[in-house]
Amino acid sequence: MIPHSVPAFTSDHRVHLVTGKLAEIATREAAANLSSHFGLSCSVGVMPITVAALMTPRWLMRHLSVPDQTTDVVVPGYLEPGVREIQNFLVKETGNPAIRLWIGPKDCRDLVTWATGKERDVDLSKYSVEIIAEINHAPRMTIQAVCQEAAALRACGADRIDLGCDPSRQCDVIGDYVSALRADGHAISIDSFDEREVSAAVKAGADLVLSVNSTNRHRAPAWGCEVVAIPDRPEDLSSLHETIAFLDQEAVPYRVDPILEPIGSGLMKSLIRYDAIRDLYPKARMMMGIGNLTELSDVDSAGVNFLLLGLCEELRVTSVLTTQVINWARNSVRECDIARRLMHHAIEQSVPPKNLSAELVCLRDARLKPASEAFLQGLGSTIKDHNYRILNSENEMHVLSSQVHLSGRDPFELFEQLTKNPAVENVDASHAFYLGYEMAKAATALQLGKQYEQDQALDWGHLTVPEDRHRVELTSRHRKHER
User: In the prediction, which pLDDT does 482 show?
Assistant: First the structure.
């Protein structure tokens, strides 16, 4: 009994796939593919229940029988909590102590992918880039509000909180902000060129100063903490070399940031500067302020952060400074946390960052499983009740019950057809609301190229919010009838 491993099927195995009535056609297609791929014998057991997700272990054991000489039984993923009960039942029922139970995927269309191991678990726990999350204009906020925002940033993956000060006015109590954040367990950096603010922040526990150049580097030895060395102007690398030389001479620990420029101000040249600094200072710690790109580009930030973290991993830039002020970059910290793990794995293993995690595939889905024409026809002839199934094929939505099969791309037109159908008598207000909600999701999925599954949330990557099951007709009486 190995519920999570990839099954090592061979031509000697006789595999029995368990499913419900609605998934019979798709499961038989998967069985044919498995037989072809492994050269094995594959049978399908269709349980007397419409939806496989409604099966419980005890219900299954009352209805399950397997063909003689079966070596492996695959049940839907919903049954994982009853794996030991089902395994013991199979051994007793067949008299074969060697029979193996597999907990397959929840969706039968994923059976081939599951069985062939094309998708695998990947260890994404490791990373090498520190995320510094800046709270812009922190002194304009109350200390309590800053602490609340810092806690939220840490929950999204931030390793350090950067207090962005207000250039227009000095904060006389910046030390109180730092002390409160330190009391909450945060590592703190201070982003200011005001020497009094920096001194107070460092005294209160900030251990990184953003930033120093020729104008304030003479103060760095007295602060007794790490600093970020930057050029006087982004294109002036000679001033950066001078600052680095001064910090080396005074034994001040530092990180080097050649300054990432936004598109339109020299993005490519700034990337070349990062590469040049890495070549000149191969052992130096480096930082990149990536907000200059994410905040100043009219584009969702996930892909931009993904690419920038890849560049950082290749250049061995071990810290990034990010903000999430503009709305399209409101999840930048979380995106950076996901991206740094993907990039660390990809570069450590020398593989492309593909098929590792779909958490940053937000707008569209990694792959689609549209209902085939054969499946829709078979489903239409199988349904015996008056509940409505909503599915997407390649180009349109389908609404099916024992009475109707409607198709189209416009939910309003479909619903009008449904209500005008003389055979339809069960669409009350609550049912109409449910159908409208589900068809809106299906239409969104069609428009964006996403997978739609009835009663399940659309997959928005790391932004997905799971939905409760709200099917109107999924009542206790209906379940009793199904069983």
Answer: 37
Please give the torsion angle defined by the CA atoms of residues 145, 148, 154 and 159, in that order, rounded to the nearest 10 degrees: 40
Task: Say how far apart CA 105 and CA 121 lie, in whole Å.
Answer: 14
Q: What is the pLDDT of residue 5?
A: 59
Q: Are 59 and 53 in contact (CB under 8 A)?
A: no
Percentage of the residues of the chain whose pLDDT score is greater than 90: 69
- For 266-314, strand residue ranges (E) read 285-289
State the amino acid at position 294 in one-letter form. T
Sort 199 into a burial class: Cβ within 10 Å, 0-12 / 13-18 / 19+: middle
SS3 content of the chain, % helix, strand, coil (to 5): 45, 15, 40
How many whole angstroms separate alpha carbon 39 and alpha carbon 430? 49
pLDDT, tens digit, for every residue of 210-227? 999 999 999 999 999 999
72 vs 1, 43, 202, CA distance in Å?
A: 10, 10, 64
pLDDT in tens, 385-403: 888 889 999 899 999 988 8
Q: What does the pLDDT average to over 406-427?
A: 90
Q: Provide the pairing of β-strand 397-400 with 389-392.
A: antiparallel
Specify the DSSP class assigned to residue 402.
Answer: S
pLDDT in tens, 269-286: 999 999 999 999 999 999
d(CA 158, CA 238): 32
CA distance 207 to 107: 51
Question: What gap in Å lies between CA 271 and CA 17, rounded to an integer?
Answer: 54
* Comparison of pLDDT for 464 and 117, the residue scoring more: 464
| Nearest Cα to Cα of residue 112 among 449, 405, 367, 385 | 367
* 211 prior amide bond cis, ω within 30: yes
Angle of helix 429-448 relative to helix 411-420, nearest 10 degrees, comes to: 150
Question: What percentage of the chain reaches a pLDDT higher than 70?
Answer: 95
pTM of the full structure:
0.78
The phi-psi region of residue 171 (left if phi > 0; otherwise alpha if psi is between -120 and 50; otherwise beta) is beta
Q: How much is the pLDDT for 231? A: 98
Q: How far apart are CA 10 and CA 183, in angstroms?
A: 59
- 203 with 175: CB under 8 angstroms? yes
Contact 304, 314 (CB under 8 A): no
What Rg value do the Cα atoms of the chain yield, rounded?
29
**Sole residue written with tokens 């071990």:** 318
What is the Cα–Cα distance from 291 to 391, expressed in whole angstroms?
41
Tokens in use for 113? Answer: 């992918």
Q: Which residues, in sequence order, are CB contacts of 176 under 8 Å at separation 6+?
A: 143, 204
63: enclosing H helix or E strand: helix 57-63
